[in-house]
Amino acid sequence: MIMIIIIIVVVVVVILLLAAAGGLLYYFLTKESDQSSGGPYKREAVATDTPQCSQIGKDILNANGSAVDAAIAAMFCLGVVSMHSSGVGGGGVMLVYNRSLQEAKVIDFRETAPAQATRNMFKGDVSKSKKGPFIF
């Protein structure tokens, strides 16, 4: 019985030592690795699919533009550089925080189908979805 208690105590001590060592290792290793290769970001950051569009958003912020200005500029850039996945006519969701009002708002600009679109409008002829007046 005493041997079982000793084994349990040893196992608990080993687990605690490993947890403490892991915590210290995490603390000391993450200081340098947490820094972004682009520099420290304390107030804002811009991230898109392409470096060019991220840079445009960053330039807008550096010119005292708002976050919304930067997002719109970056989105227009993506419409040119990555038009197959984003751009005018697409949709999305944006969270905007107004510091002076201390208020966050969600702007939902999800894409919607035209009013005359139907569930079966391409049934039987899928090519209508690729060429002609229905492609938009």
Automatic annotation (TrEMBL):
Regions crossing the membrane: 7-29, 71-97
Any GO CC annotation of this UniProt entry: plasma membrane
Binding site for L-glutamate: R110
UniProt entry keywords in alphabetical sequence: Membrane, Transmembrane, Transmembrane helix
An annotated Gene Ontology molecular function: glutathione hydrolase activity
Signal peptide region: none
Top-level lineage group: Eukaryota
Pfam families in UniProt: G_glu_transpept
Biological process according to GO: glutathione catabolic process
Protein name: Uncharacterized protein
Species annotation: Desmophyllum pertusum
